[in-house]
Batch of 3 targets.
Target 1
Amino acid sequence: MNEAVAADVGAGGGEIIAEMPVLPPRMVVTEGWPPNTERARRLLGPRGAEIVEVAPGRPLPFADGEFELVGSRHPVRPDWPEIARVLSRGGTYLAQHVGPASAFELIEWFLGPPPRERLAREPEREAADARAAGLTVVDLRTARCRMEFLDVGAVVWILRRCVWWVPDFSVGRYRHRQRLLDQDIRQRGAFVAHSTRTLIEARHE
C-alpha cells in the first residue's frame, strides 16, 4: 500500500511528525488545543503539512475513506467509528496508546487509589472497540517500562509537565507527601514507577 495520504490525529505540537525525514505527499495533522495547533503550524506548515484544529470529541472534518494511513500517539479516547470512517479500504491505523495504570505508583503516592473509571485503557477493551467499529486488529502489544526518580526535584518536574497526573499539584499543597517521598528515595535509592504503552495496528478491510 502506498501511504500517499496520511493523517495524525491529536498531534500535539507536531513534534513527532516533525521528526520524520520525509512526509507523505499529503500529510494532515489534527489537534484540539490552540497553543499546540499554533506550534504545529510553525513546525509543519513550512513542510507542506495541513494543520486542522478539531475540538476533542468532535467529528473529524474529512470525507469518508480520505486517508490511507491514520496515526496517533497517546489519544485520550480513540474515536473508533470516526477513525474507521476516514480510513480507505485497506487503510491502516497505527498508534501508540497510553496503557493501563500508567505511572499509577506515583499518582497513588499523592492521590491514593484511583476510582475505577481511571483504571481504563485496557488493550483488549480498546481492541474490542476497534473491531466493533469495523476494523481488523492486526497487532496489539503492551510494554511496561520502568521509571526511576532519583530525587524529589525530578518528581516535581514530571508532575508539572504531565499536569493531568495530579491535577491540583503544587509544591506547597503536597509538601508533606514530598517530604515522605524524599525519605523513601533516600532509603531505597530511587522511587520506581512504570509507564505502560500499547501499540495497536488495525486495518479497514
Target 2
Amino acid sequence: MGVVPGEAIEIRPARPDDEEQVRRFLGGLSSRTRTRRFFSGVSRPGAGFVRALLAVDERCDALLAVHEGLVVGHAMSHRREGEAVDIEIAVVVGDEWQGVGLGSRLVRTLMRRAAARGAGTVGMDVLGDNRTVLAMIRKMWPEATMRASCGAVEVTARILR
C-alpha cells in the first residue's frame, strides 16, 4: 500500500478492547522500528505488556492512530510525580506511515492532553542514531535540553500551551 499524506487517520484515546489490534500492530513493525521504540527487539508482546500500552488513567495516557480500522501508530505518556519532568512520552509509527507527519500529530495531541492535565515539562529517550526523531524534536522544541547517555539521548522540554 502506498501512503498518501493526508489520508484520513483518526487519532483517539486507546481503549481496553484495542488489545488485539495493538498486538497485531506491534507484531507488524520492523525489527528496526521495534528497537527504536522499545530499545529492544520485542517481537511477540505478551498480554500484560499490551495492556500497559493501553492504560489510560490519572497517571497514564495512550493514543492510537487508526486508518481504515487498523492501528498505524501509538503514543503514550506517563506522569512522573516529584521528578524533573512532569511526563515521559513514547511514540511509535508503523513503518509504511513514517515520514508523513503522523508521529508529530501524535505528539502534538498527546502534549495538548498533558497540558490540559497540568503538565509543564516533557521528557523522552531517543536512540542516538534516530536522526529523524531528533530533528522532529529540535523543530518542535528548539529550546529542548538533550543529553547523550549510553547510546541514547535524554530529552527534556517545556510543553507549549
Target 3
Amino acid sequence: MASAATFTMGENNEFTVTPAVIEAFNEYGYIIVRSLLNRPEVVKLQASLESDSELLKHSYGRDDGNGRISRMALWNHPGKDISGMIARSDKVAGTMEKLLGGEVYHYHTKLMMKEARTGGQFVWHQDYGYWYNNGCLFPDMGTVFIAIDKTDVANGCLKILERSHKAGRIAHIPVAGQVGADLERVGMIQKILPLVDVELEAGDALFFHCNLLHKSEQNNSDRRRWAFLIAYNRASNDPVIPHHHPQYTPLARVPNSEILNCQTDDVSGKDFMDPATEHRMK
C-alpha cells in the first residue's frame, strides 16, 4: 500500500519525524514506516521467539466466536529482552512520542499469533473503546503494529478505516463473541471513509491513533501471521483509576543499536497477563 501516510526509514537505522509525518498521522490517523526493523533485527527477533521462547510459554488461545483461535501473550512492562529493546528504542517509542506530542510510557505489548488455517478474526474496534474504561481520560494514546511475518489479505492483515479517528470514541458492545464497536455506527462511517488493507512485509510498522477503527479477518492461508503490538500512553494522561495496565511508569529509552546488541532472553519484570483476566486484556 502506497499513500501519503507511508514513509521509509532513513540512513543509519534512524527515522526522522518531520512535520509532514506528523501531519499525515493527524490527518489519516496512522502512518506506515517501511522497514522500521531492518532485516538483521527481524531475523534476530524471529530466532528469539522460535527457540523455545519464554514469551511463548506465557501465551494462550483466544476464541474468535467463529470456531477459530488466535494465540497471544500480553505483558505490561517492556523488560530487558529483544522485545523490550524494540519497545524502548528511539525509532519506536521516540517516534510515537513525537506523533502524540509529548512524553509517552509503555502501556502494554501484545504478541499476536494467527497460525495458518486456524488464526481467528477480530471485529471492528477502537483501542480507546476499551482504554476509556481504564481511567484514561483523553485519547492521547497509540499503538505500533510491527509485522514479524509478511501480513496480507490472505493471512488476515489489519483493515482500517482511514480518518475514522476523527469520529471520536464509538460505543463498544458485544459483537460476535467479542466486544467491538457498534456495527450500526461503523456501517455509517464505512459509507464515507476508505477501507484500507494494511499489507506489510516483515519489519514494516503501522503507527496508529487509539481511536482509529480497525479489524482483521481469519487466517485462511498456509502462512502464519505473527506481530507485535506495542501500546503507549502519554505521561500527561496518567490513568485516574488503578487497573490491569500500568499507571505512568517512566520509560527508559535506548538507542536503536540496542536491538541487535541485546544478548538476553530474560523476561523477568514484564508482568504477563493472567489468562483468567483475558477478557479485560485491552
